[in-house]
Amino acid sequence: MNVANVVKGGGNIVNMDSAREVMINSISKVNSRVAISGIVIIADENSFVIDDGSGQAHIFFIASKFKQGLYVRVIGLVTDLENFVKIQADIVQDLSNVDKLLHRRLKQILE
Questions:
Q1: Which pLDDT value is given to residue 5?
Q2: Whole-number Å distance between alpha carbons of 94 and 38
Q3: Are 1 and 20 in contact (CB under 8 A)?
Q4: DSSP readout, 47-106?
Q5: Degrees (nearest 5) of the Cα angle 39, 75, 111?
Q6: Do residues 34 and 45 lie in contact, with contact meaning Cβ atoms separated by under 8 Å?
Q7: What separation in angstroms does the CA of 32 have from each of 36, 58, 75, 81?
Q8: CA-based nearest residue to 45, from 34, 35, 59
Q9: 91 - beta bridge partners?
Q10: What is the pLDDT along the chain (111 residues), one digit of tens a residue?
Q11: In the prediction, which pLDDT does 6 show?
Q12: What is the reported pTM?
């Protein structure tokens, strides 16, 4: 998936390298741009944790309004892998209308 010239919340244009859709357990490189999707299991004001069935990732996103149980896609930069996968999100998409199982199977086929 290629994403370029995306407008962030403050109206700034962000030029992003391509983000590859991956499962959380396959993330192995800090400073790589990824796209992951999963269910929000913990939500806070400026961050949330998602689980995709293969692992969990802590997502940092300003003014996060994502509730537990919501299915989302996150596109962002991997910032840490030490104790937990941490991602600074540029984009978060609501995928609540997408079939989760079918979407996961598709991602596994594409890997």
A1: 38
A2: 10
A3: yes
A4: EEEEE-SS-EEEEE-TT--PPTT-EEEEEEEEEE-SSSEEEEEEEEEE-TTS-HHHHHHH
A5: 80
A6: no
A7: 12, 15, 11, 11
A8: 59
A9: 75
A10: 333 334 444 444 444 567 888 999 999 999 999 999 999 999 988 899 999 999 999 999 986 778 899 999 999 999 999 989 999 999 999 998 988 888 888 877 877
A11: 40
A12: 0.79
- Determine the residue type at 47: S
- pLDDT of 8 reads 43
Cα distance between residue 76 and residue 96, in whole Å = 19
d(CA 105, CA 9): 32
Residue the block writes with tokens 């609540």? 96
CB 81 within 8 A of CB 28: yes
pLDDT score, position 9: 44
Structure tokens at 76: 């962002």
Sign of CA dihedral 76, 77, 78, 79: negative
Instruction: From 94, 95, 105, 61, select the one nearest 79 (Cα to Cα).
Output: 61
